[in-house]
Structures are given as structure tokens and as C-alpha cells.
Amino acid sequence: MHEMQVAVRNTTDTPVHFADVQLVTPSFKTLPPKKTDATFKRTERTDLPIPYGAANCSPQGLPEVRPATVVAHVRTGSEQPRKVVFQVPHPDPLLARLLRDECSEFLIKQAATIEFGPEWKLSGKAMRGNLIVTRRGAGTVTLNDIGGTTHYIATPDRKPLGVLEAAAQRLETPIELTPGRCDPHAFAEAKKAFLFPLRASIDGGEERVVIVVPPKPLQDRLLAYALEACGLGG
Description:
- With about 230 residues, the chain is an alpha+beta fold.
- Helices cover about 15% and strands about 45% of the residues.
């Protein structure tokens, strides 16, 4: 889910009621206002969650972050709610990072599809299988490295993992996965266990990060393997 926090400050003794809040910027798709019904008394800072849409990316390269505003319907005291537009200082470093990260992934996905292969087997104490890269667009795609998650350590056979040459249509590169932690509470709270960050580049350019997620049947197999390897099975 795309969500960030905006800081609200009220230096008066008059409560301020926010009926809704909305981020508006050309860098991200504009979502409908989020109802908040939040009232703020005197506060140096209180964070208010605000959703934001998908990044507006371009196949031509990474865009520069554009100016943004936070639009809200606000009421003080007994008055009627009124629309207030808050200017976000430009360029905002958080919005710039979110835009860069999402559009970096977009550019890699324009060139190739990167997926977990279907064949994963237990080898010693690790699960071994392949990442499969399938051509979509132009360019040489280099898989530089893959990172682990909150629950799994990902170890490639080599670095870089592999190169999909400009004339090639498909690449398979082996990796192994082992449990990164074994406490039962961690498995119960696993929300990012299968979001593997893959570092890749196109035509020798800037390294970019793509999140690769195993399909649900493989997630179930990896979870069962990790529980067994941790002595938590059964």
C-alpha cells in the first residue's frame, strides 16, 4: 500500500478538525481524498497518514520529482469546513526517493520480466532454484545482486548473478535460500518475508532495485521448509 505521513502542527488553543486529506502532484496518480475526521488540539507535531497513487513513470528514464501540495478540508471551532491547500517544500526528499525507487523498478520491468523459477529443491540445508529473466524490451540486463528479506537469506552462486545479453531472450541464474531468523513470533508476523530486492542495471547504467516475489505456491513451500529447518515444524 502507498502511504506516507504528513506532520500537523497546531500552535493555538483552538482545535483544528481535518475532514479529509489528499496528496496532489504530477509525480504520482491522484487518489480521492482520504476521510480522516481527525481533530488536533495544541501540538508541536502529530503525524497524519495520507495515501498516494502509483508513480507516473516514463520509459525514457527517471523523471524529476514535481511540486506537490496537500489538500484538506479543515474546520476550526464551529465554522464550516473549508478547502485548504498546503504547499510541500520543493523538492521534497521523501517524494523524490519514492518516485526514484518506483520508476527505477518500472524501467527494469520494461526491459525484462524477472521471476522465481518453478523448480526449487532442498539441497543440504538450503532451498535451491533459479531466477528466470525473460526479454520484454531492448537492452542488456545485468543482475548484479539479490538481497534477503526479513526471514530469508538469499545467496547467489556468483556476482553478478548473470547477464541477459541484448540478443538473448532468456536467462536462468541459480540462487539458494536459507532461514534468516527462527523465532516463532517472527513467522506469525511475516509481512515482508517474500519481498526480495534484486539489484539490476540496463546497458551498464545506474543500478536499480526491483522487488521480486515468489508465487504463492512457492511461498507456501518456502515457509514449510523454513519452519522445518528451524525446528518449528509440526
